[in-house]
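Risk register update: the risk of archive-format incompatibility is retired. Evidence:
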Amino acid sequence: MADIFDVIADGTRRDILQLLRERGESTQDGTSVSQIVSTLGVSQPTVSKHLKVLREASLVSVREVGQHRYYSLSPAPLDEVDDWLLPFLTTGDDDAGYTPVVLPESAAHAAEVVGRAAASAKHAVTSVLNKLPGR
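Archived output:
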């Protein structure tokens, strides 16, 4: 399996993940390949190639209905990215130097849950505001 950082290094794959995340908030049915092609303006063979890489990295799941395939985001593998980034977060001001944040496991889990909920809420509010007339 490819390293998660290699997988998400590609801009098209990040665009697909972002699209699946956004659409996953509004539908549980998944997103078809044709919807991804249409939304991103990328060719079907290119999208299929990237979806294969994302599937192999367990970042997406697929549901088959006849000849159609519907993809959904599976964000669990991104925990490795979270774990790698955590030591780069600092406390105090920039002049104080590098002080890694070390949290007990229960606090780290709570912080993760709150952070994901806040990001989801922010996205939901932004989406609603962007749909308002005159925006």
